[in-house]
Amino acid sequence: MTQSAVSVRAVTQHFTVEGQSTVALDAIDLEIPPGQFVALVGPSGCGKSTLLSLVAGLRLPTGGTLLCNGEPIVGPVPQRIGMIFQEANLLPWLTALENVAFPLKLRGVPKRERLEAARAMLELTGLGNFADRLPHQLSGGMKQRVSIGRGLVQDPGVLLLDEPFAALDEQTRMVLGDEVLRIWARTGKTVMFVTHNLSEAVYLADRIIVFSARPGRIVDDVPVDLPRPRTFSMMSSERFGALKDRIWAHIRDADH
Amino acid sequence: MLRTPSQIRWAQAALAAVILAGWELLPRFGVIPKLFVPSLSEAIGALYEYRAEYLAHLPATLVEILVSYLLACGGGVTLGMLIASSPRARRMALPVLRSAYAVPMVVLYPVMMVWFGLGMGSKVAFATVFAFVPTLLTTVAGVASLSPHLLETARAFGASRWQRILYVQVPASLPTLIAALRLGGALVIVGVTVAEMLGAVEGLGFLITRHRTLLNSPGVYGGIILVLVITSGHEVLLRRLERRVEKFRES
Questions:
Q1: Closest CA relative to residue A5, chosen from A196, A220, A205, A158
Q2: Which residue in chain B is spatially nearest to A57 when comparing CA positions?
């Protein structure tokens, strides 16, 4: 058996807000093999984004263990795990190129080397001609492309995307979804993708993990058996609809 | 009315002209006694008449302002940045500092004269203490209003605490820092002038007090005009800095 890229073992997360403790995640177990594209879906507040921030090492779980390539995650390890947020969160005073290079700067990579790497990433995400623009001169979709480039620039094995297209319009969302698939197919990275959009989940993923409402538990683990490469016309196929229905049933039940 | 920038600029100029004209005419026609407020032309005349004296005392005041500025604004902004970067430090230090802010610092000046003498030391010490806490509090308030997302992103990409302060927090709060410098700088200028007026052997404040005790009102107002010139110079520098920073603001 090959080692999982990401292992989540009996992970529990409690939050205390104004003296009241809530359980965000309850005994989550999840093994993600290398190269798999996993979508995490569930009702609002089910803890799927929390799980992502745990994998990113941004916080430590109340209980349980998280592993990346068999090693415990105790803090951010950006060389192994790249993160892409819902808002692009670019530094407004840096150009697109400098934003992509930022994680390398934090690691002390010499300027020429890091800008060269960042340029390659902008080419990959289709923004080669916009390297010197400041974020406010870019559209929402372009900003998110910069953010994807920044997540990829250290060539991490695992890519975490936290509702990356939620703030974008439908067309941009479709285009960027294909873009992520193209990059994924080319680089073979392990992807964890949090989304509210069921079509997006089915269209992109190999496997869909469905969460219940708080306390967040895994209620279904759905393999997506649609062939690759995925095409727009698949979205109207019977199989696509059946997968969406199966997931929707869980979420509808959970939202009462 | 007052819609386009040029209309507003004209209105500003008109307002300034009204104030200056009032300053010139009200004392001249005896509406205000000349001993209280001499007319503008008299004040400028005094400035010219005593120019050698003012020029001799100006450097001391400028040096005191510069040194206090570096200590109060540099220190206040730096410490403010550090305190703001840690929620725990914020919770611990802010109540104490807010109480310190409420102390009327001017009561400390006699003590500082005892410690540092009549020369520049006591002026610098007083102006620094006077401006430090407000500068620090403004800095902290500005950083606290930043969106936490950028800092979180930097953390996800492995930024250490120092890197987060240096690469994210400081550049992101530059507009606030200018507000902190505007306040701190004004307080430094006030602090130095007041300290010189209360007890000194040189400086613009010293001259203002000396002219006042001689009932030479034009001489007093000549000194006030020079202090105004210094504060305006400070404002001009800040505006320039502001324009540079603004081009990075997200539209």
A1: A158
A2: B156
Query: DSSP string spanning B205-249?
Result: HHHHHHHHHTT-HHHHHHHHHHHHHHHHHHHHHHHHHHHHHHTTS
With beta carbons less than 8 A apart as the criterion, state whether B89 and B80 touch. no
Please tell me chain A's helix, strand, coil percentages from 3-state DSSP, rounded to the nearest 5.
40, 25, 35
Q: Do A107 and B158 touch (CB under 8 A)?
A: yes
Q: Is this complex scored with an ipTM above 0.90?
A: no
| Overall average pLDDT of the B48-70 stretch | 94
CB of A74 within 8 Å of a chain B CB? The answer is: no
Contact (CB<8Å) A106/B158: yes
CATH number at A6-80+159-254:
3.40.50.300
- Among A76, A91, A105, whose Cβ lies nearest the Cβ of B150? A91
* pLDDT 10s digits, A66-81: 999 989 999 898 889 9
A236, A202 contact by CB (below 8 A): no
A103–B157 C-beta distance less than 8 A: yes
Give the DSSP letter string of B47-95: HHHTHHHHHHHHHHHHHHHHHHHIIIIIHHHHHHHHHHT-HHHHHHHHH
Q: How is residue A20 annotated by DSSP? A: E
Domains and CATH numbers, chain B: 36-246 (1.10.3720.10)
Query: Any bridge partners for residue A17, and if so which?
Result: A20
Token pair recorded at residue A182 = 């193209």
Cβ neighbours for A170, distance < 8 A, ≥ 6 positions apart: none
Cis previous bond, A229, omega within 30? yes
| Distance separating alpha carbons of residues B171 and B182, to the nearest angstrom | 17
CB spacing of B250 vs A136 below 8 angstroms: yes
What is the bridge-based pairing of β-strands A6-17 and A158-162? unpaired
Q: How far is A64 from chain B (nearest CA, A)?
A: 21
Please name the amino acid found at residue B58. Answer: L
Contacts with A92 from chain B: Cβ below 8 Å = 172, 248-250
Instruction: Concatenate the DSSP letters of all residues of B9-45 into one string.
Output: HHHHHHHHHHHHHHHHHHHHTTSS-TTTS--HHHHHH
CA distance B225 to chain A (A): 39
- B187 Cβ neighbours under 8 A, 6+ residues apart: B72, B127, B130, B131, B134, B135
**Span A106-139, pLDDT tens digits:** 999 999 999 999 999 999 888 889 999 999 999 9
Domain extents in chain A: 6-80+159-254, 90-155
Mean pLDDT of chain A: 90
Q: Does A89 touch chain B (CB under 8 A)?
A: yes
